[in-house]
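FW: tagging you since you asked about this chain on Friday. Here's the raw sequence from the shared folder, copied in full. Didn't touch anything.
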Amino acid sequence: MKYGTKADYEMLTPRFEDHARGALVNNLITMMGMLKGDPLGYQIDRYEHSLQSATRAFRNNERIDLVVGALLHDVADAFAPENHSDAAAALLAPYVDEETHWVIKHHGIFQGYYYFHHLGGDKDARDRYSESPYFDACADFCQSYDQNCFDPAYENMAIEEFVPMLEEVFSRPSQINGIS
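HL: got it, structure written out here
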């Protein structure tokens, strides 16, 4: 790459971006499909949990960034189980608002409020973030769109209904510095 010229990168970059952007939503849906299967002791699998989270957010008229964040908040469970929150947030970072990114990045520790104490941990571990302007938003996300989204009787929207929202969010220009 160090031998590439300006002309080389002016030719390569749009080709790569068109390719990557063109496949991004389908790739995200494929990644979500990896959450299907064993419910791991819950009443529904992680795929249905994700649909339910996003469905509840959508039906509560949340902004599109949070709906998409809810849909993808556990997408990394299949390949980054120890840091799925960080991995999901990294996927979203170039495209969503700062609050949604922060909420998804920290939802794992905030979700611990509901169960860490049962495993010998500190249910109040989230309190280390109490000074964040997004603390309440993350606590609300976990209460409204995570811990309660394992209901097999809840009528989830289909993944196809989220495709236009995914396309809108992931067609935005990148917010990562130096990349447009």
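FW: DSSP finds seven helices and no strands in the chain.
HL: agreed, and The radius of gyration is 18 Å.
FW: great, closing this out.
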